Amino acid sequence: MNNSVTRKNVKFLPDSSRVLARFFNNGEIRTKNLVERVLALDPETLNRELHHTLQDFAGRHRNISRIFMEHFQNHVPFLKHIGMDPSKFAEEQKMLFGSYATMEYSIESAAMFNPSIIEDFDQSFLAKGEKRVIISFRATGEGHLSSIVFRRGILDENNDLKLPKVRNHIDMPKIGKKKSYDKKRFQQKLREMQISEEYSAIIMEHLPERFEYDQLRNSVDKVLKNGLSMDKKIALEEMTWLVDSYYDLEFSMDSDISERVIFPISPSESKGIEDARFVRFQDDDGSEKVYGTYTAYDGNTILPKLLSTEDFINFRIMPMHGKAAQNKNFALFPKKINGKYAVLARVDGVNNYLMYSDRPTLWHDPIKIQEPKYPWEFTQIGNCGSPIYTNEGWLVITHGVGPVRRYCIGASLFDLDDPTKEIGRLSRPLLSPLEEEREGYVPNVVYSCGAMIHNESLILPYAVSDYASSYATVEMKDLISALTGK
Q1: Domain check: are 205 and 277 in the same one?
Q2: Pair (192, 156) in one structural domain
Q3: Are the C-beta atoms of residues 448 and 384 closer than 8 Å to each other?
Q4: Which pLDDT score, from 0 to 100, does residue 447 have?
Q5: Which of 307, 253, 263, 267 is nearest to 18 (CA)?
Q6: Which of 82, 106, 130 is the last residue of a domain?
Q7: Which of 30, 50, 260, 422 has the fewest beta carbons under 10 Å from its own?
Q8: Bigger pLDDT: 243 or 52?
Q9: How many CB atoms lie within 10 A of CB 29?
């Protein structure tokens, strides 16, 4: 089987020069002192300092002046709270103060790993045997904070990947909050999060059956001002944590896909967005969209989340619900099975499970379909991305953890109509860390978040020891033969 695996000489390396300008809160005392110092500047000094700042950073960001103004606006509620009238500030004062509320963050300074690949919607102007693809990566920077970045490329007839030059600027999207929420669904998710109904009822009983975002936030903020016990305060803060997990993103249409980054936005993602698994999904009516499943992490709790897009410009983000939406490794099937959405997940942290649902965000009743069988996967087994349709069955690329936490990539085949039935599984890894791939942020790891088929070959992007990424190809006829024994 290993003779059919070809590692390509392409490396995706982290680039510390790719920075975004993120909001920075100095704290109330420092912020108050800063704004007073900015307001005290004479016009000549104010204009000189603003000019130098814009000159220093304009070449590093798309429209840095707009970013400074947005970061000023983030402080408007606080400025009003301390008795200032922001509307009376000069534009130059707003912009310079906004620069003090800004910091650069290198999104790829630590790693660029755990890739996923899908076919692009746009397949125009290609030669015979070519396919345009989109590759996602988990980019990690200072403090191990993870985000999602993208690259667009073209696979040729030999499965070699042609990549355009990566753009320098990072584009931050406009963020829109979900406008309204269904009360029953929201209460169900609170129960799944084990938030006491005694505490949540303080807020929920006063809300209509379909409530607005601001209604919940205002109610929570009002109640939090009262003398509540610590348990009640935590419960109410977790409610806002949940409601902030719904949002929309809109990137500029003139940005390149390599400039777009999905950076942690909500409190549930404050410590990172991990291991996105993208799949091009076709509904029963023939319509298509891209789904991506990922793990949101706030330093204590993980929350499985789903994003959807039809153009990689506009994204909708929402949390997953259900008793089984509690762990990592969610990977959607590319189409419904017997009229139901289907997903793979490692619900218990050790074994592979299958679930069905009428909605792609609601998951109950997991069915165990795989458990560790061979020594290289004795610790745990999980998926390496969404199942891939073949005439012989659903091809599932897996990962297994063996001795000394060594991660290897394997493959399994499942029945098309009933994916609980395993047709075959490789007894040996499809891909193991080579000697030169063993060193990195986490040693002895190869890992993937999604593969695809092109020109009768499996295109398998993979991470190298949680630091960089590459890709390999596998002859499909040999892989299917090894899985079916035919």
Answers
A1: no
A2: no
A3: yes
A4: 98
A5: 263
A6: 106
A7: 30
A8: 52
A9: 8
The reply to whether 362 and 413 lie within a common domain is: yes
* Look-up of token digits 């929201």: 186
Residue indicated by tokens 């345009």: 132
Looking at residue 2, its pLDDT comes to: 67
In a shared domain, residues 442 and 380: yes
Distance CA 255, CA 264 (A): 19
Indicate the Cα dihedral angle 475, 343, 431, 114, nearest 10°: 110
Copy the structure tokens of residue 296.
Answer: 């949101």
% of the chain at pLDDT higher than 70:
99
What is the phi/psi pair of residue 160, to 5°?
-85, 140
7 has which bridge partners?
472
User: What is the pLDDT, as a whole number, of residue 132?
Assistant: 99
pTM, rounded to two decimals? 0.91
pLDDT at residue 124 tops 90: yes
Give per-residue pLDDT as tens, 326-355. Answer: 888 999 999 999 999 999 999 999 999 999
- Note the Cα 52 to chain centre separation in Å: 36
Residue 265's identity, in one-letter code, is: I
- Residues 39 and 184 reside in one and the same domain: no
Is 219 a residue whose pLDDT tops 70?
A: yes
Is there a single domain that holds both residue 31 and residue 159?
A: no
Residues 142 and 77 in one domain: no
Model confidence band, residue 228 (pLDDT cutoffs 50, 70, 90): confident
Total domains present in the chain: 3
- Distance between CA atoms of residues 150 and 2, nearest Å: 29
How far is residue 221 from each of residues 189, 224, 284, 298, measured CA to CA in Å?
Answer: 20, 5, 44, 21
Of 232 and 90, the structure prediction assigns the larger pLDDT to 90
Q: Which residue segment(s) compose the domain that 300 sits in?
A: 2-14+109-172+249-484
Say how far apart CA 442 and CA 404 lie, in whole Å.
12
Here the tokens at position 200 are 């949540």
Contacting residues for 246 by C-beta, under 8 A, at least 6 apart: 177, 178, 181, 317, 318, 319
Nearest to 352 by CA among 372, 329, 366, 369: 369
Q: 192 with 325, same domain?
A: no
Q: Of 72, 106, 140, which residue sits at a domain end?
A: 106
CA dihedral 252, 258, 259, 260 (to 10 degrees): 60
